[in-house]
Amino acid sequence: MKLKHSIQLAFLIIAMVSCKQKQENTIVSEDNQTETTAIDTTQTYINPLDIDYTYMVYNSARNQSYRSGADPAVIEFKGEYYMFVTRSFGYWHSKDLVNWTFIKPQQWFFEGSNAPTAFNYKDSLVYFAGDPAGYGSILYTDDPKKGLWTPTASISNNIQDSELFIDDDGKSYLYWGSSNVHPIRVKMLNKDDRFLEIGVRKELINLDEEKHGWERFGENNFHPTLKEGYMEGASMTKHNGKYYLQYAAPGTQFNVYADGVYVGDSPLGPFTYMKNNPMSFKPGGFTNGAGHGITVKQTNGQYWHFATMALASNAQWERRLCMFPTYFDEDGLMYSNTSYGDYPRYGANHPTKAGQHNGWMLLSYKGNVTVSSSLQQIMKFTSNDDEVEVKEIPTETNAEGQINSKVLTDENPKTFWVAEANDDKQWITIELLNEGTIHAIQLNYHDHDSGIYTRVEGLKHQFTIETSEDGKNWKTVVDRSKTDIDAPNAYLVLDEPVKAKYVRYNNIKVPGNNFAMSEVRVFGLGLGETPSKVSNFKINREKDRRDISFSWDKVEGAQGYNIRWGIAPDKLYQSWQVYDTNTHFMRCLDRDIPYYFTIEAYNENGISEQTETIYVE
C-alpha cells in the first residue's frame, strides 16, 4: 500500500511539471458503467476567458469602438457545450469548457442577441431567446453546431434579460427583469404550442439594499446619490429537487457586480433568500465582477458558473467573461470558488481540483517596463452615467533614455499604454523584480480608437515572446508570428517552464490602428520564500452593519493579502484580494448575518498560512 501511494505521489508531481503529461481517470456513468479516459491534469485556464470577443455595434453612433462579452448563457448539449453572449452575432462551442470556437449561425438577430437565454431540452432541442428589442420569437434547433435555427410562430413580449427554464415534467417558465424598481417576474409558457403564455404570471423577488449590503449601487457598493441597485439576469438551476433562482446586482459596470440566490421548492416559488449570498462574487484583484451569469452542469456532475466581469474603460458596457467552479454544500447552500479568480486555474478536466487556483503566482507585479514608443499612457474609467474620466499619465524615461510604462504591470485593467504605430517595430520589455520560473503569460490588449463596430472575421494577434535571465541572451518561448488567432485576452501556457528575469513582447500586427495594451501578466513561481502569517488582524463592524473595516500589520515581502469570510468557519466562501495595503473597507455584508473572517498574505512565491478564524457578531 505504501509503495502504491508513493507511485501515485510521484506521478502527480511529474504531471504537474510536464505540460503534456496525461493520466488515466475512471469515470462512472449514470448506469454504473465505467470507462477510462485520458486526462490532461495540467490543462489550465484564466479569467477573463481567452475567447475572440466581438466588437460592439450599439455604441457605434458615438464612435465608441470596443470589444465586450457579457451575460453568458451556457448549456451542455449531447456531451458538448455552447455559450451564448450578448451582441456577439453568434455563439461559441467547446468540448472541454476551456477551448472555445466561434459559430456564425445561418439565421440570427440583426444586432445580435441581448442578455440571451438558452435551454437544452432532453438532448433533443436547444431553445434560445434574446432579441435586443425585448420581444420576438423563441428559436430552436437540433444541431447548434451547424447553426441552422427555426423561429417559433408566436411573438413573446418582455423577454429582455430572460431565462427560459423547462422542468423535468415539461412545464416551461420564462423569468425576466432588469430594473432598479421592478422585481424579477415569471410567466408560464406552453412549450408544445408555440410558447404561448399560459397559467401563472407573478412577481417573485426584489432587492432589499437595507438588509443586503452587496446589492447597493455603485463601485464598492457606494454611490453619492443613487441608492437602488439593478436587479437583473435571472437564471434557474434545479438541484436535488430544489430550485435555485439566481439574480445579478447591483450594476454590470461595478467591481461588486455579483449573483445572489433565492431557493424554493417550486419553479414558481415562494423563494427564500440564501443566507450565504452572494453566490458568485469577485470584487478584488485584477479583473472584477462575477454577475449576470448562468450555472451549467458538466457531464461529470461538476457545476460551473459563467458570469460577467466589468472592464468599463471605454464604456460602462465594456465587459468580459469568467468561469468559476460551483458547489452545493451539505446544507444545500450554493457557492462558487472565486479566490484568486484571475490567476491560472485547473481546467474542467482535472479529476479533483477543476476550477481551483493551480498555485501559479503573479511574477510581473510592479515589474520595470520599457516600451518601443508611446503615443500616450492613460487611466480611463467609465462612471455610473457612462461619462468617461480620462487621466493622462506623464511619459517617463529611465537613465538609458528608454520610455517607461508602469501601467503595464500595475494590476489595473483601466490603465493602458498606446504605441505610436501598429507594426513589427513595437515592443514591450518587462524586468521582473525577482527572477522566477515562468509557466504562463496573459496578454490583455486595449481597444484604443480601433474603428471596428461589429463582428469582423479574420482579425488576428501576431507576435512573439522571448525570455532572458540577463537581459542580453534571449530565448523565444511563444511564436504567434504567423497565427490566425484572434485573442484580445490571450492566455499562453509555455510548452516547458523557463527560468527568467526578463520578458519581451515583440509586436507584429494586432487589430486596430495602434498597438495598445493594458496589462502583461506573467505567472509561475518565484525562487524565494512565501510570506509569513499575517499578524494583528483587527476587524471593526461599523454602526451600519453592512459595512466593515479591517487592518493588519504589513508582512515583509508580501505583494498583497486575501481576506476570506463566510457564515461559518467551514463556509468561508467569499474573498477579497487586495494589493499593497494593510487596511480595507467593505460595504457588502448582509445586515443581520454574523460572519467569520480570516486573512492570508501572498507574493510571487506562494500563499501564507491563514490566520485563526475570527467571529464577528
Automatic annotation (TrEMBL):
Report the Gene3D superfamilies cross-referenced here. Answer: Galactose-binding domain-like (2.60.120.260), Glycosyl hydrolase domain, family 43 (2.115.10.20), Immunoglobulins (2.60.40.10)
Keywords, A to Z, come to: Glycosidase, Hydrolase
Q: Where is the F5/8 type C domain?
A: 370-525
- Give residue ranges for domain Fibronectin type-III: 533-617
Provide the leader sequence positions: none
Which family is this protein grouped under? Belongs to the glycosyl hydrolase 43 family.
Q: What is this protein called?
A: Family 43 glycosylhydrolase
Q: From which organism does this entry originate?
A: Winogradskyella marincola
